Here is the input.
Amino acid sequence: MGLHSRFCTRSAGLRRCRRHRLGISEGLSHSLLVLFTLLSPQLGFGAAPDVRVSLQRSPGEIHWRAKSWQIKDAASFARRGDKDTKFSLRWLNSDTVLTIASPGSKFSSRVELPLEVTTDNGEAGEVGFLPPRVVIRFHEGTFQMIGLMSLNDYLLGVLTKEMSDRWPVEALKAQAVAARSYTLAQIEKRSAEDFDVEASIMDQEFAWVRDRSSESAQRWWQMIQETEGQVLKSPEGKVFKAYYHSDCGGQTTTPETVWGAADHYDAVSDSVCSERTSNSWRVTLAKGNIARLLGISLNSLKPAPPQTKLGFQFDWVRSPFDERVTLVEWRLSPEEGQLLTGQNFRQMIGFQKIKSTRFHAQDLGDRILFVGRGFGHGVGLCQWGSRDWALRGWTAEQILHHYYPQAQLIRLAVEQEPKSLACDPGDSRRPSSLPRCGKNLPTPGVPVSRVSNRIMPIRR
Ligand SMILES: [Zn+2]
Here is the structure.
């Protein structure tokens, strides 16, 4: 399934829109780029596609709550309410059972997924606030909650998590463009899948921003508006998958050394990060702790012959050009070894402990000392470097060119979202002095044509 957009014309003062689907076979250059660039102002608008954000996966059961809500399933079940209500979905005897509990009332019903939930005040455990439009599916014993939202709403939820809004404006703009490019590239890549992005570091961290009057939300919204339509284009003419990370430690790296992916990337030297000493880190970990996290039983290790250095001993294979650990190898016995990529090693030990793959390790007997520089995977835009370059007077475009020298910054023509974030979401039961929100309003009858019943494996 391809991307959807709306083509709009004006007639008798009314804006008339029709949904248009662009087939996947047409490729990105004939979808996103054509979608945005060929829709001239005379025709109306080219709207950015909705983003399908995988908010939560939960085996067997899923919960949320809302005060005013509408809900409907794929068959004929439909309810609405305006009390504080708790919802749970359970898989029971080959059926999906929805329980709705509000003060003085509780009932359960079999429902057919996907379930569509529309609310402007929903919450769900670790997910936090829910976006106004949510779809819940079930596949292979796991419920999956997917939020549907505009590109700009999604970017706001990413950017407020990714970087301090108090950093220099040009760094914020560069980050906004990088996040937009990454998102559009993922939308294209996953157009046949059930969601576009995960609300985690698997893609980009995300949390729905409900309080849009905050200084942070207002500032980021302004950055989104001021970079509206700006994306990076790859040498192949597609939207560039713009990875970014916290701090490169002095040199960025390429996706191949981290994930084995084949994206076209250059590693760049980043002198501001070489100069900064606050990106140095060190941690000492007990070998027993490391073994537990890697799933190795130290007791099962055979004693190493005295003339060798075997046993629970690691080898660290470094990329010659940027000193990053690409492979970690250890011996269970003289005959048997195991291997892990540097990035997977970080993931299993903990991203907060092994803060980057740019490290050296020292064997201290029953412990290992790790000494490193930088935070994150090291590919693409370096956030701390962006900040420092912006402080030295670089523009967002210069920053983007520095970290993505192979990509070209282009501007796509897109529909403008409201300039102000402060708006009434449209609940007529509550008086409001604010103007009504625009296209971000939750709309009954959420289109779920792009949501099927399959689950995408985790990307990295
Ligand atoms: Zn850097």
User: Anything to note?
Assistant: The chain has ten helices and 25 strands. The chain has three domains: 26-49+151-244+376-422, 52-149, 280-373. The first strand starts at residue 3 and ends at 11.
